[in-house]
Amino acid sequence: MRINLNKSGLRDQYDLIINAVNLTIKHNWHAKMHSIRWDDLQYVLTVANEGSVAAAARALGVNHSTVLRRLNNFEYRHKLRVFHKLPTGYKLTAEGKQLLDAALVIETTVKKLERRVFGQEMKLEGTLRLTTTDTLLRLILERHLISFHQAYPNIKLELNITTRLLDLSQLDADIAIRPAVTVPENLSGVRICDLAFGIYGSPNYISSLHGPRPIESAHWLGLTSDMNNGSVARQIDSIIHPYNIVLKADSFEALALAAEGGMGLAYMPCFVGESSEKLQRIYTGLEDSNVGLWLMTHRDLLNSARVRSFFEFIETEIKSDHNTLAGVFD
């Protein structure tokens, strides 16, 4: 948890948060909470969430020794034993749990405050954090992000390429660009266009299929649990027996590579399948999924000039890709 107190008015708001939290915890915690170094507390919170120093180090992207040193320093500085060091992992002590509960109240409130401060930012400069998928970045978004940089050179883009839907309410990202059927309740979004899916395989593998029901007996390339939800997964489940899935991946990029190698058939976005000269589409009459490509952000960020400018830019620029994304090819 990193708290930025440099923005105008944010320190006064932060002091109000501390006072509010002090109403929920014992008086003897007042001095402790004010003397805490929040960068150190981030390590304590991560160890508590992950259950071990090693897992916390991986989550924070630092060395095992760094987490252990910061944790020991925290306990020594505050004369407080935060964890029981058990063979099975780290377990919070009673005092450690009380500290953690109070810290989580502050963290949640400060995150909300930071969203609102960022949401009122009217300057077309600073960092804008985007999350999207590898295939969308490579095949569709790359040139549009370059154009956006040319139009807004003072806005720095930070990309997080993942198939997971990051928690925008926790400021994991400012904007998400990804396939979805609907937008989560706490977010606001714009459906840019439809996103068509189809069944693809290598020509050699497709020609090797035989029998009265070749599609059902074919080897299939499926999605891992991280992506195995929504209408796309339901479409796949309607025609594929789990026994026939020979490979799973958390990326359509990986499925396309496996399909090109002749491992089996894959149900994927048409803009991915059609981009490969090594893949051929099978027309089976399978009903298209009701998936669209969405721009999403947290509602508190809608008034940010950076977010608004990006939304307006991408909505306009990506119109040239509507047919490709919707599976309409010449």
Question: What would your notes on this structure say?
Answer:
This protein has 14 helices and twelve strands. It is an alpha/beta fold and 330 residues long. The strands form three sheets. It has a five-stranded mixed sheet, with helices on one face. Strand 1 and strand 2 (89-92) form a beta hairpin. Helix 1 (10-22) packs antiparallel against helix 6 and helix 3 (38-50) crosses helix 5 (64-77). The radius of gyration is 24 Å and the shape is globular. The protein starts with 9 loop residues before the first helix and ends in a 5-residue tail after the last helix. The model is unreliable at 1-11 and 20-34 (pLDDT under 50).
Fraction of residues in helices? Answer: 40-55%
**Strand order across the largest sheet:** 4-3-5-12-6
Order of helices and strands: HHHHHEEHEHEEEEHHEHEHEHEEHH
- Taking the alpha carbons of the first and last residues, their distance comes to 50 Å
The proportion of residues in beta strands is 15-25%
Q: Unreliable runs, pLDDT <50, ≥5 residues?
A: 1-11, 20-34
**How many helix segments?**
14
Shape: globular
Largest sheet composition: 5 strands, mixed
Total DSSP E strands: 12
Structural class: alpha/beta
Determine the mean pLDDT.
78
Gyration radius, to the nearest Å?
A: 24 Å
